[in-house]
Specification:
The protein has seven helices and 20 strands. It has a six-stranded antiparallel beta sheet with strand order 16-17-14-13-12-20. The chain is globular.
Length: about 375
């Protein structure tokens, strides 16, 4: 088989069976009456078109928005792994000539992702300063736009834990037109609790804004109210590892890893100090708390599959108290949990290191 064709398929990540079947269908008819030079060119074009069909078909079958799959770099096989946490949504709200359309929710225990389109009147420039990665943007700013999870009585659930909420503008080819593709993300330090009985979500979408670092304030990009409510159901697509191992020390105090959570897209690590950090000014040592909450980062974590492959990670953030620390990472490659059975999570804290075997993955409670 032509090596160039193999490389095209490897980049698109169809299954081996799909590769062989598609190549047979595409190559055999062409060989009957066309020279090899033309054959290669025509075949590659046909392959590209076929791969687009497979990709779109995966989105339809799994109910996952194609833009979300593109965000993760996920092909058909990875889409199936995300399907248990995907909830298709079709809710549109209009105000002041602009429309917000929510199309997708993707959830595991610690992350809730929402895909939406925002379209203003033709000729409007929606400048969200997309090249500036360090600013807050979205509806009303983070503190005022935090969504609510609703219980079966459609009442807001008291989260009773630390959280973060932010909005990312996905690239749609034109950053200064009248349309935005928004990825809104909610992260929970202790995760969704099974007794919450989630039945819906409520979004508070007042005024599309971005933070201006020069003015040191939020500026309104487009004013209006696109708040909405819609039903969702939650099925945890992740598993946990019960663990209690010392991973190292910070300022002479043992730091233990006390819990791990893995989904096809998320790694959550829980750490605990043997002794609480003294937070009172007369007892605290300078820098102790900051060293504690920065004890672990993406450079000190290695996630390895059973085949010895390292899964790249992106650090999402952390929340900490005087004794507990939760750190969340996103996997750069959507990965089946089966690949982690027999794999290892390596944590390095100051001079210490611990390898946590992942054989003990069990469904999260």
């Amino acid at each position: 088989m032509d090596e160039n064709l193999r490389q095209v398929f490897d980049q698109a990540r169809p299954s081996p069976e799909q590769k062989e079947a598609m190549l047979r269908r595409l190559l055999e008819p062409e060989r009957k009456g066309k020279p090899m030079r033309k054959l290669k060119k025509l075949t590659v074009v046909a392959i590209a078109a076929a791969l687009m069909v497979i990709s779109c078909a995966a989105a339809v079958v799994t109910g996952i928005d194609q833009r979300l799959l593109d965000y993760f770099g996920a092909g058909p096989e990875q889409a199936e792994l995300l399907a248990p946490g995907a909830v298709p949504v079709d809710v549109a709200v209009e105000d002041n000539g602009a429309a917000l359309r929510v199309t997708q929710v993707l959830m595991d225990r610690y992350n809730i992702m929402i895909v939406a389109d925002f379209t203003a009147p033709e000729g409007t420039v929606l400048d969200m300063d997309e090249e500036n990665d360090g600013i807050d943007r979205g509806f009303g700013g983070m503190e005022w736009s935090m969504p609510e999870l609703l219980n079966e009585a459609e009442e807001a659930i008291d989260l009773n834990q630390s959280w973060s909420w932010h909005t990312e503008v996905l690239d749609d080819g034109d950053p200064l037109d009248n349309h935005l593709t928004l990825l809104m993300r909610m992260e929970l330090s202790e995760g969704i609790q099974p007794d919450w009985n989630i039945s819906g979500m409520s979004l508070h979408n007042n005024d599309l804004v971005r933070y201006d670092p020069q003015l040191c304030q939020y500026v309104t990009v487009y004013s209006g109210d696109w708040s909405c409510q819609f039903p969702v159901t939650w099925q945890d697509m992740g598993q946990i590892v019960r663990v209690n191992q010392v991973a190292g020390q910070v300022d002479g105090v043992d730091i233990s890893v006390t819990g791990l959570y893995l989904s096809p897209m998320t790694l959550q690590v829980k750490l605990e100090r043997a002794e609480p950090v003294a937070l009172r000014s007369d007892d605290a040592k300078p820098g102790t708390y900051s060293r504690w909450i920065s004890a672990l980062n993406v450079d000190r974590v290695t996630l390895t599959t059973k085949d010895g492959q390292t899964v790249p990670l992106i650090e999402l953030g952390s929340t900490g108290s005087d004794q507990d620390l939760d750190i969340a990472f996103q996997m750069e490659e959507i990965t089946s949990l089966e690949q982690f059975l027999g794999g290892t999570l390596t944590l390095r804290i100051e001079g210490g290191s611990v390898d946590v075997p992942l054989d003990g993955l069990v469904p999260a409670e």
